[in-house]
From TrEMBL:
<protein>
    <recommendedName>
        <fullName>MalT-like winged helix domain-containing protein</fullName>
    </recommendedName>
</protein>
<dbReference type="InterPro" id="IPR059106">
    <property type="entry name" value="WHD_MalT"/>
</dbReference>
<feature type="domain" description="MalT-like winged helix">
    <location>
        <begin position="212"/>
        <end position="289"/>
    </location>
</feature>
<dbReference type="InterPro" id="IPR051677">
    <property type="entry name" value="AfsR-DnrI-RedD_regulator"/>
</dbReference>
<dbReference type="InterPro" id="IPR011990">
    <property type="entry name" value="TPR-like_helical_dom_sf"/>
</dbReference>
<dbReference type="Pfam" id="PF25873">
    <property type="entry name" value="WHD_MalT"/>
</dbReference>
Amino acid sequence: MKESIGNLVKVHHGTDLGTRLVSGRLIPRPRLDELFAVSLNQTGGVLWVVAGAGAGKSAQAESFARSTTAPVSWVRLGPERPTSAYVAELFAAALQGEGPGLIVVDDCHLLFGEPATLTLLADLRMSVRRGWRVILLTRDEPPQELTHLAIRDSDLAMSVDEIRTFATARGGDASQAEEISRATGGWALGVLLHTQAASAEAEAAVAEYLASEVLDQLPEDEQRVLLAASVAPRATAHLAEVLCGEPMEDAWDRLTRRHLPTINVRGAELAFTPVLRAALRYQRLSRRPGHHTELVRRYATYLGWMGQAVEAVELLLAENDQAEAVRVAEQAVPELQARREWRTLEKLTNALGEAATGASNILLGARIHALNAAHQFARARFLVRTVEAGGRLPAVLAQDAGLVASAAAVMLPDAAAATRLLDLHGGDHRKEAVRFLVEVSCGESPAEPPQGDDWDLHEQSLSWALFVQGRIGDITRLAPGDGRPLYNPDVVLAYAYTGRLPLARRMWSRIPHEVRVTAHARFAESLLVYAEGDRDHALELLEDTVAEGRRMGSFLTPYYEAMTAMALMRHHRAESARALLEDRVRRWARGDDAAVLEWGRMLLGWSYLEAGRNEKARALLVEAVDGMHRAGRHLQLPLAAACLAEAHARCGDLDASHRAAAMAYDVASSTGFFLGLVRAAWCYPDIQRREQARDRQDTRWRRLVVCPSAPAVPKRRRLGPAMVELHVQTFGGRPDLVLDGRALGVGRLKVIELVACLALHPGGVVRTELQRLLLPEADAGTGGNHFRQIMHKFRDATGIRLVSTDDGWVKVPGDASIYAADQLFEQEAAFARGLHVNARLPQLQAALSLVTGQYLGRSELTWVVERREHLEVVREEAQLEVVRLLIEGGRLEEARQESEDVLGRNRYCDPAYRLLAYIEKTAGAEETAYRRAASALGELGLRPGDTRRFLELGASGSIT
């Protein structure tokens, strides 16, 4: 670089710490050299660089100047404000020198006060001869008419990679680059100081520089705003007014127009980097320490107003102002409780610590609430006992009417202690939900649910008690409407337990993440996953639930263990269930919870029944059934009574067996929940046969299993938060694919067949087998090409790429799920098994409404034809049950139409003729139905079976 210095360049050193430190000491930054060159070309040779002190303006200009071979003139103005004549003389001298060259003018902000000087700068571009370039460096924004393009602080800020390279070049710790970037915002001087000195030294140097070069250069009112606003990491004009105690709009507006180092202007907000906040905090403490404390308290109060109580408390604690922190926390408690922000309350009391929280009755009460809401029952129990032992419990509970319920709820493993709290202290209606749970779990007579709503934290106490009683419908009515978040997993549990899986899955999607990680939410999820068919994963979730319940000291952990045993029983692992239960039942017998003891005895008796130890099974089941029946705990009673009926029969007491079976059916009928009884009927079909044999006119047991050809539940992929769901409409003349609710209009039948086949094989299909299923007549070569085309068309239509594994399987990827209309129909039809007769009709009609035509009617593939025939059987079974239900309801014309519809598809359906004959009997035309049956069946060489005998029963004959 050829320098034209001497009497041409006027250098004034003044306070130039930043220039002396940064100049010549930064790494080469080619991106900025290129930016300078491009910008000079775009601006006609005059470039403004506008950035705060220490941003590296001069250093980068020097770096760019070193890259040029032209003469360079460097003019640094100040500290006195130069006149326009002086500036004109400098420019004239520079332009008369050897050229064309580069002129760099530093500290141009000193020129902005004099109109003549501004005119000179405006005319500068016209004055510069061809080939000359001028770089103008300034801390303040130049008037708009002077520049349309400028390089600014954000351009000069060092990136993390540049900081890492710089630290390495200077022998520093490159691993701290990201931390330095966060602290300094890439401010060049801050980076330099942090990479070459210990933190304390760097902070002191930065504080000194910012005080002299930034703070002291501002007018007094701007200094005041800056010192006050920097208490916060980000500030608005409103916050500045709050902190200063009076309107400061003019000073704020001027401040936001300045280019101050390490401050980002984001709209109407100033964002301070940590390094600047630390420096200004140092200045506040050194200049007016008492004022600093007042500013911090004002800001903490402001945070409290804005709902950021935890941040306010942490700020005050960082300033060792514990008394004010406690005051702010106490002030925030009512609002946080009203907004159900239990997690925030927990964080608040955690931040204050045990000693400060323990000294305040308000905060102790808030912590009991928070720990209960966080399901940290063991810690909450310890806190209640500690406060009670210290004699302060009445005073703490008096702080909030809902605290009595929370304190009693966390004491629930000790029913006597929970009841004592409920009886001795006032509280409000919420404590009645906890009392109801105690009565249901431990009582010997039926308990009535309390009246009211808005149970807050204690809705789950109410819903679990309802669950144990078998009042499933009452639980589902607790779900909030309008898609609002669901905080009570028992709603999911109720839908899953009764087989309403689509609804259960939708409800699960509404549960917030912080609730999903609790033991009880995992429990609900495990039963949902089990109901969806993934039993192995469900057992894993149950094991995790039990472990989490124990860790948190949950009152419901024994129930989780009992349900794990039930899952093992249904998974045909009776020995594992028995091994789990034998010790647990002995332990539960020593406690207060009669409900879980009954569950344990029922399941243990069931396992003994499976092992052929009938007398031992009967003894346990008698105790379980008696307790459930006496106390009105009906959830498991149908299953328990059915198992007892089998045990009595095996022991030779058929009368007792009949009484137990009748109880099982009656309870299932009264609760409208038949799934437990249906499970027992599947396990022990002799129960059903014995009851049918006792009274052939009683059709209840004959019709217990509706749609027996439908599988219990089709297995369905679990949906994660980022998954897509592909639904295939397999019924009717226009099958199609629906991706996340959007019909794709796929016309190729082979693509539909591919998706339908994959839906039936959720675990995947061997590629060669899948190719054979789709293209049975093709050879390996042509079939392989055609198969690849089908896969390609599927990917084009859906965006889903099927997974081909190394061992030759084709599977749906992990982020997608496929489900078919035919599977949904089977599930909805099978669900009717668990419903009371009154609810069965609309459920079956809803299931049948899904069948809009034949299954893949245009396909002739062997497996499709077999599936089509199977679905026709399920459809016929469902429709015949609909006919029976319509007849029982006196809706004979609708029943006739349904019967005719069945016969329209299968004119050889003997049960349909029998039902039609019953309908026609009321019109005196039963012979007509009989002759139709005889004619149709005669074509097959068959007789009408029981139809004639049915007609001969007379008007009192039953519907079978």
